Amino acid sequence: MAEAGTLHDMFIDELRDTYDAEKQLTKALAKLAKASSNPKLRQAFESHLQETQGQIDRLEQIFESLDEKVRGKHCDGIAGIIEEGKSIMDEDLDETTMDACLIAAGQRAEHYEMAAYGTLVAWAQAMGHTEAAKLLQQTLEEEKAADKKLSGLAEGGINQGAADAAHADEDEEPVGAAAGSGRKSSGKAGRR
Length: 192
Ligand SMILES: [Fe+2]
Ligand SMILES: [Fe+2]
Prior knowledge:
Layout: H1 7-35, H2 39-65, H3 76-89, H4 95-126, H5 130-171
One fe (ii) ion binds at residues 48, 52, 110, 113, 143, 146.
């Protein structure tokens, strides 16, 4: 039997997984940006794509500082999240509804990354890899900020726009019907 792996081995393994995830995400973020209609949302995805390239550089720096080969290992987790995002893009949705769903897809990825970097920072600190911990923490902050920005856009109008469009569909009242003409507040009509 081979020698048992250590936390250091698993740390390197996680770094490789995350390195691959970031590479997958550069392609995914470009697609999310392209599919966005709201200019602020497109800008948010594009600027996070720039940041992601910096995050890849940081990981390369970390591998080098630990005398490890710069190499990725296929990240199945992010691949699944990206796959789900792609199937959203294939849906036939109005622009604002699509934007709301693109935000949802983007935030799934950000939370996955926050979990990964949270662990990496903690492990690096525990093993005394101070420089790596510092770099990983910088990336963790960027992921949190990207997530927060997406929440701000969703809650700052995109979700409401999509929600209003959903209700407009259900009410089936002629466009321009008198304002306040009894919008039902009794919940969803179970549209599929
Ligand atoms: Fe990232
Ligand atoms: Fe990210």
